[in-house]
Fold this sequence. Notes:
By secondary structure, this protein is mostly helical. It has helices spanning 11-20, 27-34, 38-45, 53-63, 67-85.
Amino acid sequence: MRKRLRRPTHPGGILRRHYIEPLSMTVSGLAAVLGVSRKTLSEIVNEHASITPDMALRLSKAFKTTPELWLNMQRNYDLWQAAHKSDDWKLVEAVAV
């Protein structure tokens, strides 16, 4: 596993800083475009919820990106969090195959 020194940015932060703010959109406005509730999008933008595959598809369509972009950002964020939350996983021994 590649060692990252700093925490990857949550995809909600990327969404806010690179899409919502530059386009002068509101969370409510983007939620309407995406067909989701304002609360759902607000939780993502405020980094309290994850990007789901469904949301990745919606964001990719709205911003002409790929769903993989959004899911990879979420995966990288989640893996970093898991690796730094506990060291228990480091105690696992490799299985001889």
